[in-house]
């Protein structure tokens, strides 16, 4: 009888150990599958991944929300290379792809150049309150000063935006003084970093099947054209 009880205890202990091991293995497998599903390298393009990113706190969508392809830009309003891309490449993408309903663009704040960048980016959402996000966006790049020379300080921004048609400067000033969008900007900065952005501008082009291709730097129109056309095939 003593041996039977001891045998049952050993067997019970063994079963418990087995379930613990199975549980650990299951957790590991689930973790691996989750990693693969969110960052899966495709065989056609080793730099292309299936990707998921939260853009809900970024810009309004430029273009059709039902467009097959989305370009996510991570930028800083004080970045001269962002200005170059915004003025040289973006208009061509708008003409050939955004205006034709094939592509849309979402801008996610990545203010890394200086403290004034936070205010400049917060101002975009103050302009958005008046339905003028993209007008503000393009206006700031068109009137960009040198990095950290004070052109994007709060007081200068208040004066600068008077050049945007239809903008109520008093409402804008109250909004930017309140600081109410600064946490949103900082949250977007964290999202950009977690998404792999290390410099400005950085881009992720997401295709119809969720396949995503990163593009780093103010690349010319031809680079985006090639990436987009391959995704549209």
By helix and strand content, what is the structural category?
alpha+beta
**Rg calculated over all Cα atoms:** 25 Å
The overall number of domains is 2
What is the strand tally? 6
Strand arrangement within the widest β-sheet reads: 1-2-6-5-3-4
% residues in beta strands: 5-15%
- Report the CATH C-level class of the largest domain: Alpha Beta
Report what the structure shows.
The structure is a single chain. This protein is an alpha+beta fold and 233 residues long. It contains 9 helices and 6 strands; from the N terminus they run αβββααβαααααββα. It has helices at residues 2-38, 80-88, 90-98, 115-128, 133-142, 154-160, 169-178, 182-194, 221-232; strands spanning 40-41, 49-50, 69-75, 103-109, 202-206, 211-216. It has a 6-stranded mixed beta sheet with strand order 1-2-6-5-3-4. Strand 1 (40-41) and strand 2 form a beta hairpin. The chain is globular, with a radius of gyration of 25 Å. The N and C termini lie far apart (75 Å). Residues 5-46 have low confidence and may be disordered.
Features:
Glutaredoxin, six-stranded mixed β-sheet, 233 residues, alpha+beta, 12% strand, globular, 2 domains
In short:
The chain has 233 residues and is an alpha+beta fold. The protein has helices at residues 2-38, 80-88, 90-98, 115-128, 133-142, 154-160, 169-178, 182-194, 221-232; strands at 40-41, 49-50, 69-75, 103-109, 202-206, 211-216. Helix 4 (115-128) crosses helix 8 (182-194).
């Amino acid at each position: 009888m003593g041996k039977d009880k001891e045998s049952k205890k050993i067997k019970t202990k063994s079963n418990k150990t087995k379930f613990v091991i199975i549980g650990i293995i299951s957790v590991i497998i689930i973790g691996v599958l989750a990693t693969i599903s969110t960052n899966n390298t495709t065989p056609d393009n080793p730099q292309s991944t299936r990707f998921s990113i939260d853009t809900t706190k970024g810009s309004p969508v430029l273009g059709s929300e039902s467009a097959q392809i989305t370009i996510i830009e991570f930028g800083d309003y004080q970045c001269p290379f962002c200005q170059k891309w915004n003025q040289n490449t973006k208009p061509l993408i708008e003409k050939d792809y955004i205006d034709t309903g094939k592509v849309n663009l979402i801008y996610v704040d990545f203010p890394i150049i200086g403290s004034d960048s936070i205010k400049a980016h917060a101002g975009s959402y103050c302009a958005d309150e008046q339905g003028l996000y993209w007008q503000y966006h393009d206006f700031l790049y068109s009137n960009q000063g040198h990095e950290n020379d004070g052109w994007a300080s709060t007081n200068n921004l208040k004066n600068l935006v008077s050049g945007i048609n239809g903008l109520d400067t008093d409402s804008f000033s109250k909004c930017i003084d309140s600081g109410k969008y600064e946490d949103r900007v900082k949250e977007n900065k964290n999202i950009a970093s977690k998404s792999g952005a290390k410099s400005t501008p950085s881009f992720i082009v997401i295709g119809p099947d969720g396949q995503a291709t990163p593009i780093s730097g103010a690349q010319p129109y031809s680079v985006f054209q090639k990436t987009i056309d391959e995704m549209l095939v």
